[in-house]
Amino acid sequence: MAASAAADRFAAPAAADRIVIENCAIATVDADDTEYASGHVVLAGHRIEAVGAGRAPEDLENVVRRIDATGHLVTPGLVNTHHHFYQWLTRGLATDHNLFDWLVALYPTWARLDEPMAHAAAQGSLAMMARGGVTTAADHHYIHPRGAGDLSGAIVRAARDMGVRFTLARGSMDRGESDGGLPPDFAVESLDDALAATEATVREHHDPSFDAMTQVAVAPCSPFSVSTELMRQGAELARRLGVRLHTHGSETVEEEKYCHELFGMGPTDYFESTGWLGEDVWMAHCVHMNDSDIAAFARTGTGVAHCPSSNARLAAGIARVPDLLAAGVPVGLGVDGTASNESGELHTELRNALLINRLGAHREAALNARRALRLGTHGGARVLGRAAETGSLEAGKLADLVLWRMDTLAHSSITDPVTALVLGAPAPVTASFVNGRQIVEDGRLLTVDEDAVARSTRDEARRLARIAAQD
């Protein structure tokens, strides 16, 4: 494709311009799970104008493009609710460790992160997700070494250039090794510095509008790397600024033990005591939860980012996703950092969520293909507080959607396209749209040079390894 043609293809559409996608199977993931064996979607500017059966009306005005999507399934774009982009530079290390040992092994390297590394890692993480159908992503970035530069700005810039809808969970840690925490002291912030920098990040980058491409959440890292005062004041700051709250919770049995020893209560009770349960909160992992914990999340509307591959990689356990869903807890899917999920892809988490949860108490009744797809789309949008804008294909919602090719060798003999998408091999992405702008075509990114990103991430990973080896 010529450069000018490519620029036209992924330029933001004018408000009146229409793109028509038709002759495709559609899974809307709306409240009724409406599906069409052969239907159409009409995009008008950055919104979905219509979704329905059969072909689109022929007399639509200002149609700038008509896509014959025969052989495809169209779904909402995937929503990744938990990630650590910086970990793209440390994949494949400490592969046989549990969470605490893994953190101890990797924190000294992560503590040498700087701005160019953060930007390259964010590009790599976003590129891998976007080419696999992710249209909205959240990054929990809590490593802020002294003198490292503007890490938040570097990450936001990478997401903006990639064209992915983005939530930066501006993380923080103020409990270093000398205070009984796991990270080196020079990789943590003081309480006041963490709060001030988080507020500055919200004020600079958070967009509260309906079609926002960048939002910011307040996100102290975890109970074992953050003081109680940072948790409490972080919650107060988020609510004063009107943004969401995010942290890790109930990930391992060691964390459960740690909370009881340090705080005299389990993680969920500790979170509630510091103001960290509510409809504006989502937690990553939530593997080790009892019935009382689940009831507290349901009562308060606290969301969960389920990360099945990372939970398995770190031998953390199987989250009680069927029980969380039955109680009404909002649940979405997360890649988690690529130092504990080296593939870095969310579409594989649809399959892994279904399979891993069937190893639990509910067995074959745990999840089915459509519930898995809902976790990765509408469920994720709900967890990020954006279900009114994205996560399903409905008129008036933002034009975030994916065309999955289902007529190749990998999927053509599976009659049901949703089953094919979830249980089959990773499906090729023919096109992915975010805010009405196409960012992927035939599995390749249109917004950045993938080969250049690969070179940059390789170089920065090697530079990080050299610097860490000098300590």
From TrEMBL:
InterPro entries: Amidohydro-rel, Metal-dep_hydrolase_composite, Metal_Hydrolase, MTA/SAH_deaminase
CDD domains: ATZ_TRZ_like
Entries under Gene3D superfamilies matching the protein: Metal-dependent hydrolases (3.20.20.140), Urease, subunit C, domain 1 (2.30.40.10)
Keyword tags: Hydrolase, Metal-binding, Zinc
PANTHER family the UniProt entry points to: AMIDOHYDROLASE-RELATED DOMAIN-CONTAINING PROTEIN, AMINOHYDROLASE SSNA-RELATED
Keyword Transcription regulation (UniProt): no
EC class: hydrolase
EC number: 3.5.4.32
Species in which this protein is naturally found: Streptomyces coelicoflavus
GO molecular function ontology, one term from the record: metal ion binding
Protein name per the record: 8-oxoguanine deaminase
Classification via Pfam families: Amidohydro_1
Domain Amidohydrolase-related residue range list: 73-436
Coiled coil: none
